Amino acid sequence: YQRRVRGGLFKFLKCFALQSSFKTLTNTTTKPGQILCLNGIRVLSINWVVLGHAYMVFVMLAEDKSFLKTLLLRRSSVAIFNGYPSVDSFFTLSGFLVAYLLLKQLAKSKGNLSPAHWVAYYVHRYVRLTPPYLLVILVEGFLLRHWVEGPFQFGFDAFHEPCKKYWWTNILYVNNLVPWKGDEMCNTESWYLSNDMQFYALAPVFVLALYHSPILGICTNVVAVGASVIAAGVITYVYNIGPSSRSTMNPDQWWLLYIRPWIRCAPYLVGILGGWIYWKYRAALKQYVKSLSQWEKFLFGATWWCVSIVVEYAIVFGIYDQIRDVTLEQEAPSMAVSVSYQCIKRVCWAIALLIQVYLCDLGLGSFINSLLSWRGWIMMSRLTYGVYLLHIGLMTILIAQSRHGFYLHPDYEMAVRYIGVLGVSYLSATVLFVCLEQPLAALETLSYRKPRTTPPNPTKPDLEANVINADIIIANKSSNDYGSTSNTNT
Fold it and tell me: Are 429 and 393 in contact (CB under 8 A)?
């Protein structure tokens, strides 16, 4: 008994060992069957998110906004000011992974997962995401206003007042609904987490339908996606919303469309359907590709790469003319363009992204797959959750302590700010991962281990001690939603 106590205490303390946590972070070992390109997609997507937020924050505080007009008239700048598909990438990958891993577990258990599994499915998600999230809310919403001094420190009031009033909505992951207009949201960027948590909670309904009755599951998924598309179109038409926030006459687009779960669920649902297709037909697709000649493989892969890239390019840059017209105060975007774009952009982006994931996994990715599957992305992908949580607060600290005005011209000034914010975000995310995320992950894994009541038999695998742990393997794996939360992320 004393040996067990000492051993348990040692394991508990080991969970907080910085060396062990850092070793986990830097481990780039891969296993057969892993979809390595997802790591690169995650990292590039979060970098895109930070780029858009950097311009959003610094543009709002710029001393001279005259250069903004020149910036908006550049076609290349559309990738910054219309970078919203970067968020849809995370929703798509999250739905894809949750569905694929749940289906694998359902297949192993012949469709009968234990109650312990379903409890762990939800508990794991909440435990892994919430502590780092609450720490950031505590620091940004309540402490920074006392710690940071500077000419613009009053900006922290924008963090404090909403968090003082609505911090509880973040704990319950409903701050995308309460307050209704989102004008007093605590930790504004956390609307994503609430949506993702809500989608994660409902995902088993669609996955179970796909497993037990594929026709019913497909119909349910398609109907839900269709309802989301119709809702986006109706709201766009009724409230006269443009195709993007930079080409709209309605400033309420934020709470009408951008943060609502019934609008943002479309790429997640497409991801769930994509995860089912991948689970169901992966072997058949690989066999088909293997049967093709080298020339046929090239033609097949090049065709689908071109189609998917053209679709993604059209989604990001296709509204340049509308942004230009609004910037020059010419005619407003036509309602037909606005409704069409708002209806299809999220679904089309998700489909195009999944096609690219399939191509990489099937060996048709060429140099693109080599780039996205680079082992260096593995470590960085574990930090994307921390980068997501921290980057806005870090930018606010930079602004609060600034002794001079901000300017958008020349471009290298913004490049320096962006690279600096991104680098500090990854560095801070490393500290968060090593000191909090990984220790909590190790503690959770330790808590699921069942203590022995009999001495181990060295000739017999210790299966009983891992029954509960096996039930939560899907939760451990599916936390790869973002990129970091448990080996993430989401």
Answer: no
